[in-house]
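USER: Write out one fold?

ASSISTANT:
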Amino acid sequence: MKEEVTNPWLEIPLEEYEEHMSSPTVAQAQYLTAVLKGLVQSLSPSSVAVLGCAGGNGFEMLSAYDLRRVVGVDMNPDYIAAARKRYEHRFSTLDLLCYDFLSRECLFEPVDFVFAGLILEYIDVEESLQRIKGFLVPNGYLGVVLQLPSATVPHLTPSPFKSLMKLENFMKLVSPTDFENQARSSGFVIRSANSRTLETGKAFYEGIFQRNKGS
């Protein structure tokens, strides 16, 4: 009988993940928060969903805005518990869901804006887009951050936290061109796209997509 493979995201302690992501050699926690902040400022949504929210990535910034509702989704129950402890009193409505968001059990009232930052590297893109479309109101927005390949920087930054190394064979970079084509096929319109390189040398694609009202 084939042994079931445990998703590595269920085995990475939140403290190790957060220290890794915010360390100077990675600096992706700060980067994702800045991207999310910029999108919330420019799109002015009244409701936001963060997919793969961990312990509340970017929530400290979201609490400064007049948001009617914030949704956080993550499959790791320890991450969701930490997000609830940190932020349950910071928003008028905070819905925290412990699911793989591709699961049919993951359901919530559609929002104006969904943020998917560095999560699509670990899941099926086509299926993700179909699920995300259902999470959005007609004409709602999707903000995406994808890691770009590099000839000089490894996909997964070396870390003193060995638990993070479990992601090495689980991570698969997504081609922005392929993603844009799949997004169009799934009923999204691309509104903007650009790339950014951090001081660490890693480069990222940033895209804003809008759900076609008729899709």
Observations:
- DSSP finds six helices and seven strands in the chain.
